[in-house]
Amino acid sequence: MAEESAESTVTTAATGESLLDKISDKLHGHDSSSDSDSEKPSLSSVKQKIFRLFGREKPLHSVLGGGKPADVLLWKNKKVSAGALGVATAVWLFFELLEYHLLTLVCHILILSITLLFLWSNAHTLLHKAPPRIPVFHLPEEPFLEIASALRIEINHGFAALRDIGTGKDVKKFLIAIVGLWILSIVGSWCIS
After folding, report:
1. Are 32 and 21 in contact (CB under 8 A)?
2. Secondary structure of 135-161 in the HEC alphabet?
3. Exposed, middle or buried, 185 (CB in 10 Å: 0-12/13-18/19+)?
4. What is 100-135 written as a DSSP string?
């Protein structure tokens, strides 16, 4: 029984090697009848011969993270990819060509939704429909107090650093502050048109 499984393993290994040899011969344009066994490439040389863009070792689908995002980027699901492209084009049209701003868009969406809720809640008696169920939100106080405390500590550290710079005790901090503010002013001039 052990001899039969050893023979089947040797047979499948020989078949797998001959299959890989045939594939590599087809890829390289060689005929397997003219090659001898000593000149046939091994499995590692076949793997090295596979051309991947930018020298990657993994397929592009796995480089992009696999799953649905990679499928969308590689257009494997054409409807979802076309929808994503359409939404991106509409966003580009809104913000670039029509010079629409994000804050304006958010405000208009909120105005529309509040108007619809107001009209629905006042018209429910005329339409004999149930009024809209708007949930009640209560934000806990503790996280905001912790954020305010952490922010207060950071602001105090900033004031202490400004005091050190202003008193002339640390030239290095002074130069870093000047360069940082200068770079920030340049970036700010790029953002505001």
Report:
1. yes
2. CCCCCCHHHHHHHHHHHHHHHHHHHHH
3. exposed
4. --HHHHHHHHHHHHHHHHHHHHHHHHHHT-PPP-PP
Question: What is the value of pTM for the model shown?
Answer: 0.38
3-state secondary structure of 31: coil
Which tens digit of pLDDT belongs to each residue from 143-173?
A: 999 999 999 999 999 888 888 888 887 788 8
| Angstrom distance (rounded) from CA 117 to CA 123 | 10
Alpha helix locations (H) across 29-99? 43-49, 60-63, 67-73, 78-92
Sign of CA dihedral 171, 177, 178, 179: positive
Question: How far, in Å, CA of 80 to CA of 127, rounded?
Answer: 37
**Residues 104, 112 contacting (CB under 8 angstroms):** no
Q: Kindly state the tokens that stand for 164.
A: 């050190």
| Residue for token pair 């696999």 | 66
How much of the chain, in percent, has pLDDT values that exceed 90?
18
User: CA-CA distance, 14 to 60, in Å (whole number)?
Assistant: 31
Say how far apart CA 16 and CA 22 lie, in whole Å. Answer: 10
Neighbours of 27 (CB within 10 A): 13
What backbone phi and psi angles, to 5 degrees, belong to 183? -65, -40
User: With contact defined as beta carbons under 8 Å apart, do 52 and 62 qualify?
Assistant: no
Give the start-to-end residue ranges of the domains of the chain.
Answer: 12-50, 67-127, 161-193
